[in-house]
Every structure is written in C-alpha cells, then in structure tokens.
Amino acid sequence: INIREQLRQILGQEAAFRGVQEPALQVIIKQESPVIVVIGTGGGKNILFILPAQCLGGLTVVVVPLVSLRSDIKDRCN
Asked: Where is the chain membrane-spanning (predicted)?
C-alpha cells in the first residue's frame, strides 16, 4: 500500500504527513502490535485510523471518550 498516495486521495494532492504519522502508519499497516503513538492536540491522530480503515477494509473500532470529539471524528469520516 502506498500510504502517501492514499493520504492524497483522502486529503487532497497537497497533503503531506506530519511528525511521526508516516512511520506510525507503516507499523499500523503492517499490523504490528502493540502500537502506541503520542501526538499532541491537532497533530493528526485521526489519520492513523482513517487511512488504514479505508485501505485495509474490514472492521475498524475506534473508542472516543468525549461526545464532542466523537461527533467531529464522525463528520471527518463521512
């Protein structure tokens, strides 16, 4: 899977990975476990589950503790 191309398909041709997103996604796509990624607010954590969910198919379960955050993530995935 070409994760850079997948990112561009999801976010547009100008999209680029930030910080540890790309190496984290490489590990996630390989389905290595466990994966722990620490990224601050606004750092792009959502792409770490959105991109694999769209590329790999199957079922993706995301646990979000805050209702407002849950709504924001749901809107981004639609």
From this structure: 47-69
